[in-house]
Design a protein that fits this description.
The complex is a heterodimer of chains A (443) and B (350). With 443 residues, chain A is mainly α. Chain A contains 19 helices and four strands. In chain A, strands 2-1-3 form a three-stranded antiparallel β-sheet. The two termini of chain A are 48 Å apart. The radius of gyration of chain B is 23 Å and the shape is globular. Chain B is an alpha/beta fold. Classes of the chains: A mainly alpha (443), B alpha/beta (350).
C-alpha cells in the first residue's frame, strides 16, 4: 500500500505518525491517572491526619468515685433550699472530691506515691467539682446520700493513656509530673481509671483552657442546627418561588436577564462579604443580638439562596415543555400546570440543590467571624424560637477557635470536631445522592 | 400547597425578629492574649454566680476597643479586653458615639518569651542581639546599612552558629508592639542605629524626628530571616517544629502550657517566669487591661459582679487561677480592686 506521497505503509506496522499519536495518548492517560492519583493521595493524607489526630477525642479517661455528700458541708441549714446551698462554691465541692479520692486510693490499696493533696487533685479535671455541684443543686435530695460519680481525668492524664503525653514529656511539663502519671498508671492497673466512649464530647459546651478534657461540641451542634433550620425554612420557599417566577412566569427581557446575571454572580461572591453585610444590616441597623443563630441563619440564607435558585431553575428547565403543554392543553391554568405537574417532577433536583446548598452553609465559617459567633459560649441556647436569639457557637467556628488554644489537648478536640462536621456533611451529601438516584426522572 | 405554608412560616419567623428579649448575658471581645484568661474567669463566673456565662470573643485588642466604642445599648459589647493601652483615637471615637464613661482595669502583666524547639541550641539573648539579627537597617562603621547577618554567631560570638530565622508576631498583634518597643528599640539605641536614624530623619520638630527614628528602628529585615506570623502562637509553634533551628516569639502562658515542646531563651541573662517578670528583672513584658462600659453597669445584669470577680484575689491574686495559668500578678492589685468597687472612670490619657 502507498499513501498519496508514495511512501509505502503497512496497516500491521504503525508508521512514525501513528506511533507519535499513540504515544501522545499514552502520555495523556498517564497524566490523567497521576492527576487522579494525586487527588486520592491528598484525600488519604488529609483523612489520615484528621482521623489520626481526632479519633482519640471520642475516648475519654475517667475515674469513678464514690462520694459521701456530707450534709454538714453542703447544706448546714438542712432545709435543702437550692438558693442557700448555692453558697457552697466549687471549692467546697472540690474538697469533698479530694477526700473521696484519697479514701478510694486507701481502700484499693494503691500507693499514692506521697503526692500532696493538690497533686492528687491534679489527676482530675477541674470540671469535676462544677459537675458535682450542678448535680447536687439540681437534685438537693442527694445531700446526705453517697453518690457514685464519674469524674473526668485531667487532660494530661487523659493524654497519657492516649499516648500523647509520656513520662519523658511530663518531666518538662509544668502542668503534670511523672509521679502523677505513675500514680495514674497504678490506678489504671487497679481498675480505678477507665477509658470509655466520650459522650461528653458531643454534648458538653466549650470549656476554658484550664479544662480541655471537658470541652465538647454541644453548643456548637445546637447552634449549627438552629442556623440550618433557619436557612432551610427561609431559603427553600424564597428560592423556589423566585425560580418559578423567573423560569415559568417572568417575561424574557433585559431586566430578567440582568437579574439572572446577578444571581449567578452572587453565587460566586466570597462568603466574607456576606458577613460584612450581615454586620452592617442585621446587627448595626436592625439591632439583632450578636453571636445569635438568627443572624448566622439569615446571612447563610443569603449565601445559600443563589445556589438554590440556580439548582431549582436548572431542574425546572429539565422538565420537558411537553408536560406543560399537555397540562395547559387539558385546560389547566398556568399555576395548576406548574404546581401539579412541573414542580413535582422538578422536586428531586430542587431538594438535591437545597441539600448541597445547606451542606455548604454548614461548613461556612468566614461570615460567622464578623457577627460574633467565634466566641466562647458556655451556656446552651434555649429552645426555639427564643433560642434563635441566644448566643451560640457553630461547628466550623468551634474548630477554628480550638486550633488557636494553647493546650495541646485542644488540637485533638479540633480534629475530633472536624470528624463530626465531616460526618454531618457526608450524611447530607449521601441523602442528596440517594434522592437523586431514586426520584430523578430522565427524559 | 406546602410552598405557601413554608413561606408563611418563614415570614412569621422574620416578624419574630424584633421580639428579641433583653440581653441577660455579658458580651466581651478583644485581645486574643487576654482571651484565655477571660474564658477562665467567665467559666468560673458562670459556675459560681447566678448569672449566665459571659460570651467571650477574640478578634484582637484594636478590634475589641473599636466595638466597645460603637455606642451604648444592648447590641454593643460591655467589655473590651486589650493587651495594649487604649489610644486617644479610641477615646475620641467613644465620646463621639456616646460612650463617655470607660473604666480601665489592669489585670496583670504578660511576659513575652523567645523560644526554640526543644532539641535546639541554647540561646542567651539581649535586645541588642535580637536587633542585630532581625532589624532591617543596622549601624555599620558609623553608617546605616542593610542587615546581612547570616548566623547568630555573626551577631554575637557567644551565640550558636545557626542561621538566623525568627518568627515574630505580625503587626496586627499587640505582642508586636511590645517586641518593637522593648526589644528592637532598645537594641536600636544600644547599637547606635537610633542616633543615625535620628540624624537622617526629616521631621518638622524634635518629637516628629524621634517618632520617625523609632518607626525606622521597628523595621525588620525583608530577606526572609525574620518572618511575620499573623496567625496565633499555635502557628508559630507549628513553624518551629518544621524549622528546628528557628527562634519564635510566644506569650509566657502559651510557653508554660507547651514546656514539653519548647526551650526558652534568656533575655539579658534572666529566665522568664512569673516571678522574674513581676519583680521586673525580665525586661520584655506588658500590662494587660480590660475596658468596661460603665453605662452598662446596672443595665446588663452581672457586669459589676463579673469585673469584681475578675480582679478578686481568687483569680488574679498571687495564688489565683490566672496566675497559675501564666498571668503575672499586678503588685498594685489592691488599688485596682478599690477602683473597680468604686466604679472609678478612667481619666484622660497622660
Amino acid at each position: 500500500m502507498s499513501d498519496a506521497t508514495g511512501h509505502k505503509t503497512s496497516l500491521l506496522e504503525p508508521d512514525a505518525r501513528t506511533k507519535a499519536r499513540n504515544a501522545a495518548e499514552r502520555r495523556f492517560r498517564l497524566m490523567g491517572l497521576s492527576a487522579v492519583g494525586l487527588g486520592v493521595l491528598a484525600l488519604v493524607v488529609l483523612l489520615s491526619s484528621v482521623l489520626g489526630n481526632g479519633l482519640s477525642a471520642f475516648q475519654q479517661t475517667s475515674i469513678s468515685l464514690t462520694i459521701p455528700l456530707d450534709e454538714k458541708k453542703l447544706d448546714k441549714s438542712g432545709k435543702r433550699d437550692p438558693a442557700v446551698m448555692a453558697k457552697v462554691t466549687t471549692v467546697g465541692y472540690g474538697k469533698l472530691i479530694q477526700e473521696a479520692l484519697k479514701d478510694m486510693l486507701a481502700e484499693a490499696g494503691v500507693d499514692d506515691g506521697g503526692l500532696k493533696p493538690k497533686e492528687l487533685m491534679g489527676l482530675l479535671s477541674k470540671e469535676a467539682a462544677a459537675d458535682l455541684r450542678d448535680r447536687v443543686l439540681a437534685d438537693p435530695s442527694l445531700v446526705g446520700t453517697t453518690l457514685s460519680f464519674n469524674a473526668m481525668a485531667n487532660g494530661r492524664v487523659d493524654g497519657f493513656f492516649k499516648g500523647r503525653v509520656t513520662l519523658k514529656s511530663a518531666e518538662r511539663d509544668a502542668n503534670i509530673t511523672p509521679e502523677q502519671l505513675q500514680l495514674a498508671q497504678r490506678m489504671a492497673d487497679a481498675g480505678l481509671i477507665k477509658t470509655g466512649f466520650n459522650w461528653a464530647f458531643l454534648t458538653n459546651p466549650d470549656a476554658s483552657e484550664l479544662r480541655p478534657e471537658s470541652a465538647g461540641l454541644g453548643v456548637a451542634i445546637l447552634g449549627s442546627a438552629y442556623m440550618m433550620l433557619i436557612v432551610l425554612v427561609l431559603s427553600l420557599p424564597i428560592g423556589v418561588a423566585a425560580s418559578i417566577y423567573l423560569e415559568e412566569l417572568a417575561p424574557k427581557n433585559r431586566w430578567t436577564d440582568l437579574i439572572e446575571i446577578n444571581i449567578a454572580n452572587l453565587a460566586a461572591v466570597p462568603s466574607i462579604v456576606f458577613g460584612i453585610l450581615a454586620l452592617a444590616l442585621f446587627i448595626n441597623f436592625l439591632g439583632l443580638p450578636q453571636s445569635a443563630p438568627i443572624v448566622g441563619g439569615l446571612v447563610l440564607t443569603l449565601m445559600t439562596l443563589p445556589t438554590i435558585i440556580i439548582a431549582t431553575r436548572a431542574s425546572l428547565k429539565s422538565v420537558p415543555q411537553g408536560v406543560r403543554d399537555a397540562a395547559l392543553g387539558v385546560g389547566a391554568s398556568k399555576m395548576q400546570a406548574i404546581f401539579h405537574h412541573v414542580l413535582p417532577l422538578a422536586m428531586p433536583g430542587i431538594l438535591t440543590g437545597t441539600i448541597l446548598g445547606l451542606a455548604r452553609a454548614l461548613g461556612e465559617s468566614a461570615p460567622l467571624l464578623l457577627i460574633g459567633m467565634v466566641a466562647f459560649v458556655k451556656d446552651y441556647p434555649a429552645s426555639p424560637p427564643q433560642g434563635f436569639f441566644d448566643p451560640a457557637s457553630a461547628l466550623p467556628v468551634q474548630v477554628y477557635s480550638w486550633t488557636q488554644r494553647a493546650d495541646p489537648a485542644f488540637a485533638e478536640r479540633a480534629s475530633g470536631a472536624i470528624i463530626v462536621l465531616m460526618l454531618f456533611l457526608l450524611t447530607m451529601n449521601a441523602v442528596a445522592i440517594i434522592l437523586r438516584r431514586r426520584f430523578e426522572r430522565r427524559w | 400547597m406546602t410552598v405557601l405554608k413554608l413561606s408563611v412560616s418563614a415570614l412569621s419567623l422574620l416578624a419574630l425578629a424584633p421580639m428579641a428579649e433583653a440581653r441577660d448575658n455579658l458580651q466581651i471581645a478583644g485581645s486574643s492574649t487576654v482571651l484565655p484568661y477571660a474564658t477562665i474567669v467567665a467559666e468560673a463566673f458562670g459556675e459560681n454566680f447566678d448569672f449566665p456565662t459571659p460570651v467571650v470573643e477574640g478578634g484582637g485588642s484594636g478590634a475589641g476597643r473599636k466595638k466597645l466604642c460603637e455606642g451604648v445599648g444592648e447590641n454593643t459589647i460591655d467589655i473590651a479586653n486589650s493587651s495594649s493601652r487604649i489610644k486617644q483615637s479610641d477615646i475620641d471615637e467613644c465620646t463621639k458615639n456616646g460612650v463617655t464613661e470607660i473604666m480601665e482595669v489592669r489585670i496583670g502583666y504578660d511576659g513575652i518569651v523567645f523560644a526554640s524547639a526543644l532539641d535546639g541550641a541554647d540561646f542567651a539573648l539581649t535586645p541588642t542581639d535580637v536587633f542585630l539579627a532581625v532589624g532591617g537597617k543596622v549601624a555599620k562603621d558609623g553608617a546605616l546599612a542593610d542587615n546581612t547577618a547570616k548566623s547568630w554567631k555573626e551577631v554575637n560570638e557567644a551565640l550558636p552558629d545557626q542561621p538566623i530565622l525568627a518568627f515574630i508576631p505580625g503587626t496586627k498583634h499587640g505582642t508586636r508592639e511590645v517586641f518593637d518597643t522593648k526589644v528592637l528599640l532598645e537594641g536600636c539605641k544600644a547599637t547606635g542605629a537610633y542616633d543615625l536614624h535620628l540624624a537622617a530623619s526629616t521631621g518638622a520638630d524634635d518629637d516628629a524626628k524621634k517618632k520617625e527614628a523609632e518607626t525606622a528602628c521597628f523595621e525588620t529585615r525583608t530577606d526572609g530571616a525574620s518572618v511575620d506570623i499573623d496567625g496565633d502562637y499555635t502557628e508559630t509553634l507549628a513553624r518551629l517544629e518544621a524549622n528546628p533551628t528557628a527562634l519564635g516569639v510566644f506569650g509566657l502562658s502559651f510557653y508554660e502550657n507547651n514546656t514539653d515542646k519548647l526551650k526558652v531563651a534568656t533575655v539579658s541573662g534572666v529566665v522568664p517566669s512569673v516571678e522574674t517578670i513581676s519583680s521586673g528583672d525580665y525586661p520584655v513584658s506588658r500590662p494587660l487591661y480590660f475596658y468596661v462600659k460603665k453605662q452598662h453597669i446596672g443595665v446588663i445584669p452581672g457586669l459589676k459582679e463579673y469585673i469584681e470577680f475578675f480582679v478578686s484575689d481568687d483569680m488574679v491574686g498571687p495564688d489565683g487561677e490566672l496566675t497559675q495559668y501564666g498571668l503575672v500578678p499586678d503588685p498594685e492589685l489592691a488599688a485596682t480592686q478599690e477602683a473597680v468597687t468604686a466604679e472609678t472612670v478612667m481619666g484622660p490619657l497622660e
